[in-house]
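Supplementary Text 2. Reproducibility record for the structural model of the 417-residue chain.

All settings were left at their defaults, and a single model was retained for analysis rather than an ensemble. We include the record here because the model underlies the residue-level annotations in Supplementary Table 4.
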Amino acid sequence: MKRPPIYFTPSPKVPHATLHTCANGTRLYTMHNSNQGVVRVSFIFRAGTSWQSVPFSASATVNTLSEGTERFSALEIAERLDFVGSYFDANIDRDWAVLTYCSLSKFAAETFEIAEQVILHPTFPERELEVYRTKRKEQLIVQRSKPDHLSRELFGRSLFGADHPYGVTSPAEAYDTLCRGDVEEFYRTHYTAEGCFAVLCGDITEEHIALTKAILEGLPNGPRCERTIPAPQPTLRATLKVEGAVQSCLKVGLPLFPRTHPDFVAMQMVATALGGYFGSRLMQNLRERNGYTYGAYAAMINLDRSGYFVMSADVASEYTEEAIGEIFREVERFCAEPMSEQELQMVKNIIFGDVMRIFDGPFGVADVAIENIQNGTDNDYTEKLLRQVADTTAEHLQAVAAKYLRPNHFITTIVGE
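Retained model, structure tokens:
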């Protein structure tokens, strides 16, 4: 048997979205694909947790929009979507809130009826909000008993500062004082035409486009949300003791820049080489040679107004300092000598394969389009990214790593015994 050849195509044809501008200025992007007979629409609002002034109000808003509207109760919404086999999902991160509806094309009208009620006419019933507050408070208490969750929170505070929108954490007791008025105020302020766009994809028709535009045009105009993101106030080393923990959750990194920065792609490749796949340098060192951990990872994280580089591993408690030393040594080695051509080609193949896997289906293409639109670009960005990856040399990656990965700038956090 002969292994099939591996082809590396640095210039794939990425489908582009068609822009429709609604009467109130909101943007609708459509991507037609009739292969699967399904329709998906995502409404994206600039309403992430970094925009809130009251703790937990952003996540409470997006998660209780479907708990009751002017026409339907939470139960009726769930039953109507279930009856036609439709799917609804709400997600939130630091910058954005996303509401997604998916249905068979022939049942899209029924699904859009629910979407219109949820997005334009929520009532945030007090009883449902109370259930949400109680449930989420208990979930947070449980999460904060786990070192991995505490490690993420500690690293965010250490990267940006405890009062920074990207680093702030709130006590679980803040759920007790979260009221319906806080949720309604966040909804009025951030679920507006100025802060929204939508992406409609799949087996779409002119009717589906008209229904989506009707929802978008029903959004009220409001003051454009502006904010000033302060400079990070990093803490170079922070520890949090967890009694009885058998492992230390380590994170090492530093604040850098968002995806729009010209060096972001190169730093993404550096992160991939250090900890972006199973045979990466950190995996070979910490797992294969030293046996400190089952897994070690590195990544460049993109935020709306910032970004950061992070390396992480859960290591046996008794090897905490040794593991940190090895992480720093791998960074120093990367900055001191260019990688081999074989390793460079592996990194390129990993990144290219990840992009191709995302494009497996119309919804994956739509997800890429959403991320590109959030960052102020279109799907040309993905084509440019792959060309840049293909053209990057080992010497360039070494120079970029040496420019940014300076040991005296690294933030190190340890959560464990």
